[in-house]
Amino acid sequence: MRSAKRAVEIRSTLGPARGVLAKLYIQSGKYQEAAIECRKALEIDPNDQTTVYHLIQALRKTESKTEIPALLKRLAVLRQQAATEEREQYRYKLVEGEAEPK
What we know:
mainly alpha, elongated, 0% strand, 5 helices
């Protein structure tokens, strides 16, 4: 946890470090702190599926459960977009080089 905190102190715009810190807060039962870090990470990268999931986990353990349905929809959309992008990425493969002799 010390390393993640230090990384965030050094570079506050490092979204993945904030995500790791949020996960560690969840594991240690500090759900409010986890939610804060998740929100900051989502300001940096709003499309981070892992951070949205961690925010949902943290909010489930706190009193603020009103945001959870919207976050679940957001997570579903992000997952669908990622699957579509992955399919498109592998749809066509160009091979460079000479044609094989017959």
